[in-house]
Amino acid sequence: MMLVILGTFLGIIFGPSLFILVPYIRNYFAGAICKSKAKLNGKVVLITGANTGIGKETARDLAKRGARVILACRDAAKGEVAACEIRAETGNQQVIMKKLDLADTKSIRQFAENFLAEEKELHILINNAGVMLHPYAKTVDGFEMHLGVNYLGHFLLTFLLLERLKQSAPARIVNVSSLAHLVGRIRFHDLQGEKFYQRGLAYCQSKVANVHFTRELARRLQGTGVTVNALHPGTVQSELTRYSSVVSLLWKMFSFFLKTPQEGAQTSIYCAVAEELESVTGQYFSDCQPAYVSAHGRDDETAKKLWKVSCELLGIQWD
């Protein structure tokens, strides 16, 4: 209904010329396209949450480039369907699904152990999976769901796979963050949202945590041949809104102005393959170009403190 009203309003203003403008308007909201023609034959790529949305489209693109692509998925059945679809479309038989539940550190550790036993190289790690607007809940290990899945799960996974990335250098780590990081704050006094919980703010906290993680990890990886960058994919039509009926409805009403999953995957692909980013690290991108990071996201002391707290929560030593 809203689109009908909007269309009528624009039709009154622009008249018949509106039909000429529509493709240009749509292209504007679609955003930039990764123009790199880089091939990935012989490269190993791992993508979390790759059974749907931008993760699946990223996997599809990198498979077309010749990479061996591992889809790390919580839902094994959906993951296998996605892997079969990508294999059939691309002709690349090196597209494999592996089960991974980022809400369970035992699952993460088991996944990493199996991966290291089976894969001798890892050139690109894309930390893509996430939840948004989830009602208050905790992971298996007692972490608030957004923080646990979007941030801590990927923090632990990266830690467990880092030596393989270093051995495979040059290698890249790509962290999917969000424009929502701009309003995110790390609430050290109530990190798990036990005193106060608002799911939008919890999501924003997890996304600024991704930015802090990216910047601090980049600092620590200087000289190793492993780069790490974060990105905002854009506002995308995806299953990410499934926990909010209101937002899901709004997404459907204004779908014309949202990116498709393929369009939303472009900056992830860009960060993974663009030749000009070979030595670029610790940056944040949107629409395949550097983007603004909030003042809070640039706070190095907060990043260092969050790193220390994260290690304590996960029971690891990462110096």
Automatic annotation (TrEMBL):
Gene Ontology terms for molecular function: all-trans-retinol dehydrogenase (NADP+) activity
Keyword Oxidoreductase: yes
Catalytic activities: all-trans-retinol + NADP(+) = all-trans-retinal + NADPH + H(+)
EC number(s) reported in the record: 1.1.1.300
Any Pfam family: adh_short
Xref: SUPFAM superfamilies: NAD(P)-binding Rossmann-fold domains
UniProt keyword terms in alphabetical order: Lipid metabolism, NADP, Oxidoreductase
Listed pathway(s): Cofactor metabolism; retinol metabolism
Family: Belongs to the short-chain dehydrogenases/reductases (SDR) family.
UniProt protein name: NADP-retinol dehydrogenase
Organism: Crocodylus porosus
Gene transcribed to yield this protein: RDH11
